[in-house]
Amino acid sequence: MEFAGSNILSIQQFERADVERVFSVADMMEPYAHRRRRTKVLDGAILGNMFFEPSTRTRVSFGSAFNLLGGEVRETTGFESSALAKGESLYDTARVLSGYSDVIVMRHPAEGSVAEFAAASRVPVLNGGDGANEHPSQALLDLYTIKSEMAGRGRGIDNLRIAMVGDLRFGRTVHSLCKLLCLFDNVHVTLVSPQELGMPGEIVERMRSAGVDVLESDQLESSIAAVDIVYSTRIQEERFSTQEEADLYRGRFRLNQSVYTANCEPNTVIMHPLPRDSREMARELDDDLNDNPNLAIFRQTDNGVLVRMALFALVLDVVDQVDAHASDVTWCTAGRF
Ligand code: CP
User: Fold this and answer.
1) I need a labelling partner for 38 at 20 to 30 A (CA). Which of 91, 128, 198, 213 fits?
2) Which are the catalytic amino acids?
């Protein structure tokens, strides 16, 4: 894949070598993301960070990643604060905003909307999540985290055993992650959901065609007994037609310390794209796991900055110039990393 000047819209754009390229550039970003060095390689560049759906991690980590490379960030948050609320088309919005930016990240509730926007944009567009469809940068940071967690156990991504749990119908992060896992060898995926919230058939078929061993289940305990990773997801209540319908499924699969201890192999990694739903009726990933060293959710969020820095550096074609624009940091970083 030619990264320079490309849109990043779907995980289907990636071959295994492209994923490995992203990961090797992400590794290179570690001193910058962890505030030991700073770089001004994107000095003068502007990111248009356009979020027409709620977000904490994706919006702020894309923005931080761009700032850490020395660029400036301009944001639009919420449909109502944009001219889309006055009936402006995605085409017009893209034509306008791409005149103000060097690269755009966009999240929008409609499937396919980011690709439609990108077709009219004059600068590269990165998909920050389009409805229930895809979330490619999340899948990359999830797999980067899996690689790192498995390396700590003397393993790689090949031969992975992973259980994905929860709302697999509307959860775009698991859609993208399943497509990404198709690039690796001897992967075993157990899909755990209520039948009504199962993984879309076309994605299951894609995995099977790629040689992934796929099991589908509606039982949590037996499904997490022999896996390397449990990847929990939230019920995507914003995608249901009514709150009552979402409530039918909330709290159906709860992973807490006692369920983990009773069922999982020692050192099973616990992941979640976040936000987790910490309300009493949900708690798909209980707070009592917070001190479990195998809980990787905040390592995922930290890794998101590295991976998003890598995507910007590749798309804006500055990978080879990052270190030439670097200096030491002068402020106290308080041992955050
Ligand atoms: N994982 C994720 O997409 O989180 P946000 O909705 O906070 O961006």
Assistant:
1) 128
2) 57-58, 86, 107, 135
